[in-house]
Structure formats: structure tokens, C-alpha cells
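Shall we go through a protein fold together, starting from nothing but its sequence? Please make up or recall a protein chain and show it to me in full. Go ahead whenever you are ready, and we will take it from there.
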Amino acid sequence: MTVYIDEYFFINSFVDFLLILVASKIRKSKPSVKRMIVASLVGGGYSLAVLILELQNSILELCITYIVMSVLLALIAFGYINLAHILKNVVALFMVTFIFCGIINGLFTKNIIRSNTSLIVTAIIVSIVIILVNEYLNNNGVSNEKIIDVVLVLGERKVKVRALVDTGNFLREPITQKPVSIVRECIMKKLIEGNDNNLRMMVVPFRSVGRENGILSAYIVDKMYILKESGGIVVERPIIAMYKGYFSDKNEYDMLLHPKIEGKEEENV
């Protein structure tokens, strides 16, 4: 069978781009297109090296190099915050690759895919289907279990907000190491404007994909009530940072609640 190196490289790079794109949708992250393209080109180069060096003849070598390359692709595409962050991205990439390759290989065995063009078209369709299925599951209870009501209190003012318990939020105040939750600026202004006597402001540094580092303005509020059906949790003097944009395309929530928030359980919250 004749294999054209340029076509082989292009197709594998394109498929890697789709895999990274789908993984980013599942992880609800937004890597820059530039990072995704660079990662997919590196992935295409790896596939070409496997072909030329005939690594597919050694299962052990293939597995080791694939794991290393998956970590490298995740680092290039999603950046590095901490070990947990990179592991979650690698797992998402593995999961998407497993589903994707299973479907593509199944279609190959049934002779449904017979050319490079049909492969590319099928890859696009499979990617769209995986993304739509993921969104359907999220919109029908899978992710909604993590969206809760939170009440922020500063002085005499109270603001109720819908919050996502964000397992990808690793933000902490650098000195005390207290967890930092993030709320939209328009919500925070309702709480802090005219409340100067009760305010304690600080800045919290952060790192994110597409931006090496930055600073968020944050405030210590008096209390935060995390509401539950059976009562709730009262958090004393939590740190809340402000964010100017939106957290979701559908505006389903206005706050990212740190997953490590600790408070006191109360029945009548």
C-alpha cells in the first residue's frame, strides 16, 4: 500500500486537532487556537515518526511513546497550572481518543470509509456528535448537579447567585492559601458599591491557558451561604474574586465556587 507522507501528516494533524477540540469542550476549557494547532502538528509529527521508525511493531515502545506524547500534547494545548490540571486534561484526551478511534475503526472494517476525503468528513461528523452528546448530558442533569445557589453577605447586603462547583478551579490566596471563588463583576458590584467601611480588598495572581499570568481583584466578604435542600454550609470570611466576562455561553451561572471551600453545616440556612 502506497502511503504519501504529506497526506499522512496532514490527516493525522487534522484528527489530532479535532481530538483536542473535543477534549476542550468536555473539560469546558478554552485553549487558544494557536496552541491547539501547534499541539496537533506535534501530534502529526509523532504519527509520522511512528510510521517511519516502525514503532508499531513494538507494543511496549508504542505505549510508552504514546503516553509521553499525550502528556506533551495536553501541556501544549491546555498549558500547565498544576499536576491535577494536566492529569484531567490527559484523561479527557485519552477518553476522547478511545471513543473516536473505536468509531472510526468500526467504520473502516465495514468499508464505509474508503478514501482520505471520507475519513476527514467522517472525523468531523464524529467530533460533532461527541460534542453534541456531551452537551446533551450536561443539559440533562449531569453537570446541573454541580450548580447550586449561594448567598454572599457583606454588612447588611445579601446577593443570591447561581454557582458552579468548579473542580478545575485551583485558585488560592498566595499568603494564607485560602481557596478563592470567582464571581462576575456585575454581581460583585451589587454587594460592594457604597459598602466601603466593610471592604477589605486584595489582588490574587493567577495563571491560565493563553495567558501566562494575571491578577484578579478580590474581596473578603462577611459570609457565604452554600444552600442545600437539607440546610446548607456557612463559610466565614471567604475570599471572592471578580471576573468581567461570562462563565458559560448560556449564562447558566454567575459564579465559580472553589471545590475545597470549607464551612460549618447548619440546618436553617
The two ends are 70 Å apart (CA to CA). Residues 70 and 199 are 46 Å apart (CA to CA). Residues 141-145 have pLDDT under 50 and may be disordered.
